[in-house]
């Protein structure tokens, strides 16, 4: 078998399982208090500043970061358990999710000490949110064709261009924007790109909403018109933005949110079919649970790679591809097994979750890199080895 496609088999340590009980209890208490109702895809569309702050107080944001930057020096496996429980409960975590998952990690890897001291403690408190500034109207899978430009000026840079599908930009404080800082070199299209942290409240920044099919608003177009950003907003090295963004994408693709987005629907589906003795129903549910268990083992394996300091780009792509197909499969199975009229405003929880899952699911295999792009990454690595 091709060695590159192997994942470590990890048993979660005792401290991680203890933490799981604590997180579960907290989530149960919050639900009893009526703080939130579980929703599908809550990591991208469930926003609650209050809830993010509560998680910050608990020490469940920036968990693996050094204490000197406001982190808690926990292991990636402990972080896995917390994220898994939050997703399974469909909790409103979208506010801080991207900052915690990838922007903080980017600062730790490439940022200056000053940037780490400024941004990380606020993120860990659940009070500072980031949006991903990669895609543009004419640059998605072919990201290197992006045209948002940062031009050097006295004391900083001037930004012009626009970013698209920017999840959470309307409630985020910053975006990390990948920009062209040198003209396009057709021999090396990845050269001349740089990353900047852009304050979304600056003059010249416009955030325009884009509605989802559900009528909700979670992503946006972000337009930069002669936006001045100071020199110290450069993240990492000028011209190295491509390499840095690809490292950021490994964090973006590697977590359990890539197979648990529709888990709250699975919970409602199980309630609907409880006691059903129909063989077809039982086979369909059995298949889902078997897939879920396998994906979970694989995803823990990816967290185990992070724990060993390995950047899991290829395995994260593989697990994301399989996981996002599975998230869709839950919605499709639920739709076929239970006769219902799905609607986000239904009085029946199953129907609300089904509507959310069905209407969000077209995006699952696009966001964070499409199925075709992920399979390309895996295939290239296999051929190389
Ligand atoms: C819900 C959601 C949230 C998102 N949030 C963000 C965000 O916060 N920040 C951000 O920057 N972006 C975000 N995106 C954008 C996402 O990253 C892009 O949609 C994705 O990279 C695909 O780009 P595109 O939409 O331009 O499609 P295209 O790149 O135009 O692709 C269209 C189709 O062509 C296929 N294709 C393209 N190139 C190839 C190839 N070389 N080989 C085979 N097939 C190919 C693709 O697989 C796809 O099926 C989000 C998208 C969604 C759906």
CATH architecture title of the largest domain: Up-down Bundle
Q: What would the principal axes of the Cα set say about the shape? A: globular
Number of domains: 3
Largest beta sheet: strand ordering: 1-4-5-8
Description:
- The chain has helices spanning 14-32, 42-45, 49-58, 76-88, 94-110, 113-124, 241-253, 263-273, 279-307, 313-337, 349-360, 371-384; strands at 130-133, 149-153, 156-163, 174-180, 193-199, 205-211, 217-230, 234-235.
- The chain is of the alpha+beta class and 385 residues long.
- It has 3 domains: 3-128, Orthogonal Bundle (Butyryl-Coa Dehydrogenase, subunit A, domain 1); 132-241, Butyryl-CoA Dehydrogenase, subunit A, domain 2; 245-384, Up-down Bundle (Butyryl-CoA Dehydrogenase, subunit A, domain 3), CATH 1.20.140.10.
- Strands 1-4-5-8 form a 4-stranded mixed sheet, covered by helices on one side. Strands 2-3-7-6 form a 4-stranded antiparallel sheet, with no helix packed on it.
- β2 and β3 (156-163) form a beta hairpin.
- The longest helix is centred in the last third of the chain and has 29 residues, at 279-307.
- The radius of gyration is 21 Å and the shape is globular.
- The model has no long low-confidence stretch (mean pLDDT 95).
- The structure holds flavin-adenine dinucleotide.
- Residues 131-132, 134-135, 140-141, 165-167, 219, 363, 366-367, 369-370, 372-373 line the site of flavin-adenine dinucleotide (FAD).
């Amino acid at each position: 078998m091709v060695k590159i496609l192997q994942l470590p088999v990890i048993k979660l340590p005792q401290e991680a399982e203890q933490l799981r009980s604590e997180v579960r209890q907290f989530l149960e208490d919050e639900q009893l208090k009526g703080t939130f109702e579980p929703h599908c895809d809550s990591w991208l569309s469930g926003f609650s500043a209050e809830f993010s702050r509560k998680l910050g107080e608990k020490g469940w944001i920036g968990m693996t970061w050094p204490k000197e930057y406001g982190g808690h020096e926990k292991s990636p496996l402990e972080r896995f358990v917390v994220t898994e429980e939050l997703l399974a409960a469909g909790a409103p975590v979208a506010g801080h999710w991207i900052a915690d998952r990838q922007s903080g990690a980017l600062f730790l890897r490439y940022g200056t000490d000053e940037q780490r001291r400024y941004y990380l403690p606020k993120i860990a408190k659940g009070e500072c949110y980031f949006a991903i500034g990669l895609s543009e109207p004419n640059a998605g899978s072919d990201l290197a064709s992006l045209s948002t430009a940062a031009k050097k000026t006295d004391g900083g840079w001037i930004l012009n261009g626009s970013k698209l599908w920017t999840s959470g930009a309307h409630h985020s404080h910053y975006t990390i924007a990948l920009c062209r800082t040198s003209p396009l070199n057709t021999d090396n299209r990845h050269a001349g790109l740089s990353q900047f942290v852009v304050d979304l409240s600056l003059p010249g920044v416009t955030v325009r909403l884009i509605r989802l099919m559900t009528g909700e608003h979670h992503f946006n177009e972000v337009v930069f018109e002669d936006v001045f950003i100071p020199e110290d907003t450069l993240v990492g090295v000028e011209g190295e933005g491509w390499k840095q963004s690809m490292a950021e994408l490994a964090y973006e693709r590697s977590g359990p949110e890539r197979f648990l987005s529709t888990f709250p629907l699975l919970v409602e589906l199980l309630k609907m079919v409880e006691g059903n003795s129909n063989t077809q129903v039982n086979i369909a549910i059995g298949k889902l649970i078997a897939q879920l268990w396998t994906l979970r083992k694989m995803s823990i394996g990816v967290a185990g790679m992070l724990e060993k300091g390995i950047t899991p780009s290829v395995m994260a792509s593989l697990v994301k591809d399989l996981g996002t197909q599975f998230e869709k499969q839950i919605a499709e199975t639920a739709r076929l097994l239970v006769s219902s009229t799905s609607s986000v405003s239904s009085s029946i929880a199953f129907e609300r979750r089904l509507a959310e899952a069905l209407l969000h699911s077209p995006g699952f295999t696009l966001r964070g890199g499409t199925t075709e792009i992920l399979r390309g990454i895996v295939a290239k690595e296999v051929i190389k080895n």
